[in-house]
Structure formats: C-alpha cells, structure tokens
Structures
1.
Amino acid sequence: MLLFISVLYTVPIVFSKYMSTENTKFATPKACEIWIKVEGQAEKIPLETYITGVVAAEMPVSFEKEALKAQAIAARTYALKSTNYGKKAIVPTVTRQVFYNEEQRKANWASDFPGNERKIVEAVQETKGQVLLYQNELITAMFHSTSNGKTESAYGYSGNDIPYLQTVDSSSDRSSPKFTALKEWTLAEWNTLWPIQWQPADFNRLQFIYNDSERVERIQLGTHVWTGREVRTLLQIPSTDFTLSYNSANEKVQVYTKGYGHGVGMSQYGAEAMAKIGKTATDILMHYYQGTEIKMLDTCLK
C-alpha cells in the first residue's frame, strides 16, 4: 500500500562523507542511459522508468504536479547515490525507496491507470536527468511523509551533521491526515514490549529530553534510558515526537504522536502544501535541502 515515506521505523540511512563524483559531468544530457537493478525484478530498468515507479509508489498521484516533480528529482538523486550510478542493486522497500512496476501500478489504479500513469510520467519527463547537488556532489536526498511542523536535522536523527539536512519550518504539515495519531495498549500488553515492568505511577515519573526539532531525544525512568528512535522502533509508532501516558479511566497506556516518518529532508505533505500555493519544484527542493542546487546529469559516465 502507499505509505508515501521512504522509511517508517528502522532506517539504515547512510550519513557518510559525500560520495565522490570524480569522472561525473553535470551538463546537457546525452543519449547514454543508466540502468537500475531493483531486487526482485528480473531485468535492469532504465533510470527514468525506475523513477516513474518510485514516484507512483512514494507519493499520492492526486498531489500537484510540482510536488510530484520535486519527488522525482529527490528520488532520482537518492537512487543514483544509493546505487553508485547503477553499479549496485537497490531494494524496493521503505528501507530505500518503494518501487511499483507497471503491472503493480495497473493493479493499484485499475481503470484510473491511463490518466494516473500519464500524470506521473509527465512529472518524471519534465525533470529528466535533474539531480540535487551540494558542492557538486550528489546529496543524500532523504524524504518522509509528514513532519511534526519542523523537519528533523541529520544531526538530530543520527548525530552526524550534514549542511543540507537541517531543521526547517514545515508548519503546513499540520493539515496532513497523517499529522497526529493515537495508539493504545493495556498495561499487560505494554509490559510485554519492555525489558522492565511498568506500573501506572511510572508514567508520571518519566523524564523527556527533546532535541531542537521538538522530537524526543531520549526518555528516562529511574536508571533506565531509551532514545526516541529506540522507543519508536519498539512501539512501532509513526514518529519520535510522542507523549506517553496512562489513562486510568480506560486503564490503557496511550501514545500520542505528531508527524509520520523520520522527519529528515523533504516532507511530502509539506511539498504538496507549497505546490498548492504556487511554489515550483525548485522552490520546494531549495526549502527542504538548503544550500543545494539542481543540475542536469550527463548520463554518459566514463
């Protein structure tokens, strides 16, 4: 199903030193083509065909074309960096990028396939060969569904500072249907998840430490400490902006979250909100990946 985020719960994001682009030119594209090997697909796929399948899987087709174009550029950049320009395979899951082949798109869209396919293909073709660069190197173009009103920085997420993955405003995400969520457990169910046994009074003793994007950096209960990411993974909740409480009225543990996804990079619902007020794909990408530039990739790699 369409989850529209690159990563949900556990994310092996590569926040390493930027990949070298030696022998790579960014200019007018030539006739050469990059092919992407997608795990589970029998044959390699031309880059732009692959990006069509990613945009169709990662973003609602109902979104504005400029948001879809921003997604195409981010997805293309992410794919090229992750695969080293097609030299390595990529998994079609939320740990990298979800990909739907043509048969999957036909099954998902049914009678709406022709119109939906045309819209996605146009967004991809209108950005053909465009990638995001920072200091002339491909960026790690992370994206997610919905922020908590601010994006998460690379440092806040992983402890590694990356200049173009900083916290920026995304307050329009509050209108996203994925902005808030509530999940409940009985105390017995809750205690099966943790290495300690909680009592109702423990929820009043919890200490929360937040980072600059107002997400939970860690929680502490007595001598026990967990990071926000550890809690998110343990509880399988949408984000690290959460509260924990015990409702004595219904005798349930309640976890209330804001945002959907890791929060790093482009917010997809934020991109849609910007597109709706007339912002272009370039405007969107420059907001979420500050200090970067969009250039055309010469696909004739040597």
2.
Amino acid sequence: MELAWFEDFLEIVATRNFSTAAASRNISQPAFSRRIKALEAWVGAELIDRSTYPVHLTNAGNMFVPRCQEMVRDIYRLRTDCRNAAGASSQLLTFAALHTLAIYFFPNWISNPDMPSAPINSSMHTADFLECVEHLSSGKCDFIITYNHPDGPRVLGAGPFESQQIGKDRLVLVSGVDSTGAPLYDLDAPEGTSIPYLAYSWSDGYLGKLVSLIQSRWRRPLNLSLVYQSSLAEGLKQMAIAGRGVVWLPQICVQKSIAQGELVQIGGQQMTLEIEIRIFRRIGARSRDGEILWKHLARVAEQVGARSTVDPSLTLR
C-alpha cells in the first residue's frame, strides 16, 4: 500500500472522472486506473462503481472515504510534527528544480540575505520537467522550481498546488563564434542554407515546446538541421561553444559565455521569449520553515509586483 493510492482515491472522489483525476495527479489515465485497482486489491473490495458516468462510490467506497481522508491528514501531520520536533537546525527544505535553475538561479536566490532566515537549510534534486512535477505530486519534495509561460504547457494547473513567481529569464538563440568573434551561423544566411541545430530532447518537453513558439514567429521557414539532442541546457551550451550548431538557451545559462565572447546571440529580439521562474508547492500542512518561506515570498511579490529577483541584465530591451 502506498500513500499515493490514498491520494488518488480522494482525487477520484472529488472529480468523479478518471481522466480529470489523472490530469490533476499529473499521471496518465491508464497509470491512474492501475493505482486505483491496486488500492482496491489491497482493501479487498471495489471502491468505485465504473458502470456509471460520472462514476459513483460503492458502499465500501463511501465507508472508506472519511477514514482515508483522516489517514492522509494524520500522515502529513505526523511528518510535520516529526520535522518540527527534530528542531529547526536539523530541518531541510527539499527542492526539485530543472538543472539550469538549480545551477544558475537557486544558489543566489536561496542565499539572498533578504530571505527570512538566511541561510536556509535545504536539499536539491535536479531533474527534467516531468520528473520535477512527479516529485512534487508524490510528496517527495516540498517545492519545485521551474520555468513557466502562459502559452506553454500548463504547469500543475490542476490539483492541490499553488505557485508564486520568483524571477524571470529569457530564451535566446545563440551560436558559437569564429576567430574574429563573428557568429558561425546566422539565420539571415542565403535561403536553402542548412543551419545545424542543437535541440532539447522530447523527454524534457517544456523548453522544447517554448522553442516551437518562438520558431512560429519567424518570417520564413527556418532551415534547421538537427545534429544533436539533449535534455541538459548545459550540455547544449557546450556543444554550441564547440561550434556544432545553434541553440535556444535560457539567458541565465549563457550570459557569462556571451560576455566572454564564447557565444553570440543571433536572430534578434524576434527569436527570444521571456519566461517566468516559478516556485510550486502542494496546498496543505507544511513545515514551519516552509510556511515562513512561502509567506515571505508572498510579501515580496506583493511589495514589488513579482518583479524578477535575478540579475537585471536578464531583461533585454
């Protein structure tokens, strides 16, 4: 038996629809259905009447609901009480974040002297977008930090989650340089010229979909020829520095390389996209330090209009 099965059951109780509940839990419908069946096998009785639409609870399901709610609340309350009993000095706030944000954004952000109890004791799990979402959905971390754009895929848009904007970044198109500092590749090359392209793996998904938004703006078809894929922005950056192709990267990742003349931005403003940096958490009981951090971020957002907390140079004009 897993805690996630109980939370899955409470989601289907709330929505009475398998596809909606699966979306709220950020898993596929077949996987969600398998987990409900696994819970029913553990209980030893069917909890969901699947013959109706919307689905209804069986007699056993109706009996199970209040105890299930109580157990989930008690488990999370127990975890919070244990963490608090261990003392503030031993508590760690657990984060999951995209690799780029874990490397280039998180250290300065978490160490900001304006934080309520800086330095905050924390642990970090770096992962791709889908794994970050899974970590938060399954309760493996307190917070995730990821990119977000209104026209991009929805990030935890349904379910018991809330978020705050904590920064801004920008996707920019870059190329390696030749011995004179000029770009090795240019979008204004003669029509028909093939431009080697470094792309995000579809396993990452999120930044790749935002790049597709940018490409749709270009005045003519981009003659990009895929030569390399990776889910790691840092790996794509090193390939660009090595002269292997052009790539869209978060500016926070490449600003130093651009300043040092290793990379150059190409394509102009039309080939960029401003994106938010957001922090997400599950709604519900949290540790004392987690609550303090969240309330602090809410106050900061209210005072400064959720403006970026990253280097002002990230905002292009």
